[in-house]
Amino acid sequence: MLEVLYCEWRKMRKSAAFGVTISLALLCPILFFLIKISDMDFKALKDRSLLNWTDYLENEKIISILIAGLLVIAIVSSYAWVREHGDNTLNVLFTYPVHRLTIITAKLILIALFLLGYNLIDTIISHVLIMIVKGEWIPGHNLIDNLMNGFISYLFQVALVPLFFLIGMISRNIIVPIATSIIFMFVLLYLVETSYLDSLPFGGPIFPFMWYDDSTSGLSMFQMIWENGILMVVCLAVIVYQTLRSEVR
């Protein structure tokens, strides 16, 4: 497994998906910071009390996930499979003395690690920027809450990986998964502050930052978990079926 994982890492590291992931992880927190500060006419640079720790950190994560996070999941998840078709290497890949499911598992693990890296970079930069402006460390309870919500959000992001992987596997191109992520983004932007959020499995990544908000009262974390769990299991089952039935020519 480690050898297969390393091979997949080398392929992904040299791909455009790697550059896109790093670029978005760096760009999103910086852009959010500049927009937030400019909306306050840069007064927050002088009056540090204008920036609220909780509001800033949680809104940054919500915007980051909506604008770039879903796109990253779609690009990385689908690219891991689509490139094999584009480079005509899939048939060669399945002739290796490694079980097909081992190869698919390695790809899914690598995608999850990519998403972890994206979230870590985004979180670190957003935390550093607000600490620089406020000139103090993030209060312990704010830091713990934000990291816990971020971790739960990451788990929901991982739950979406099989969906986009499957879309890429069926469509055999990266455009369809990207278009799907954009549709998801607009739907969430429209329903993000409503009581329908927990009825959208693809809304899981932003759910941890919204479910306790007064404007979205009545939302159920349990409902979101089982919806995402069912979606992930069904998509994984179809991926396994598709992988095992693929013919090698």
UniProtKB/TrEMBL annotation:
Q: Where are the membrane-spanning stretches?
A: 16-35, 62-82, 103-130, 150-167, 174-192, 225-244
Q: Does the keyword Transmembrane apply?
A: yes
Keywords for this entry? Answer: Membrane, Transmembrane, Transmembrane helix
The residue stretches assigned to a coiled coil in this entry are: none
Record bears the keyword Transit peptide? no
PANTHER family per the UniProt record, alphabetical: INTEGRAL MEMBRANE PROTEIN-RELATED, MEMBRANE PROTEIN
Q: What is this protein called?
A: ABC transporter permease
